[in-house]
Amino acid sequence: MPKVGMPDIRKPQLVNATMAVINRVGLHAASISLISKEAGVSTGIINHYFGGKHGLLEETMREILRQLSSTIISQLKPIPVDAHQQRINAIINANFEGFQAESKVAKTWLAFWSYSMHDVDLNRLQRVNEKRLLSHLKIELKALLPKEQAEVVAHGIASLIDGIWLRGTLNPEGIDANKARLIINDYLDKQLTFYAKVSRFQGI
Known about the structure:
single chain, mainly alpha, Tetracycline Repressor, domain 2, 9 helices, 75% helix, elongated, transcription, DNA-binding transcription factor activity, DNA-bd_HTH_TetR-type_CS
């Protein structure tokens, strides 16, 4: 976390510089020197406020997660609380549109995923993000499915989001948001249809 007193103008400047450098040269080659040069600041500022590259990477990921959370909330806000499938679609869309779909953000996410396997702080951020996504999905799915089935489908959708995101990041053409929605909605529709048939058969 940045130290108290970090000028607000500097944080987005350094976060954007970090993502730009990772996008250009990768995480391991993204040195404090390159990031400070990209941001137009001295290396001392980064070391002072973030304690080095690790602290800056953590703040960068926090900002990406904040942006994702904000996008999900803003997309859900105008949708009626009982329009559950529409709200699920909004959650899906938020993961593939706008800021999250930018090349520099996608490559930073990919670097973060690989790095978080070996870093306690970054792994914790990843777990928080995973739990937040599952929580959003389960709230809506529990209105459409029994609790146990809602849990399974929520994990299925989250897995599809991650998988499509990973494949899209590795694709030179980037993430195809329309195809992502089609794939995930096809899975969701099949799950809802299957349970509806089971319920009728069992007389539920």
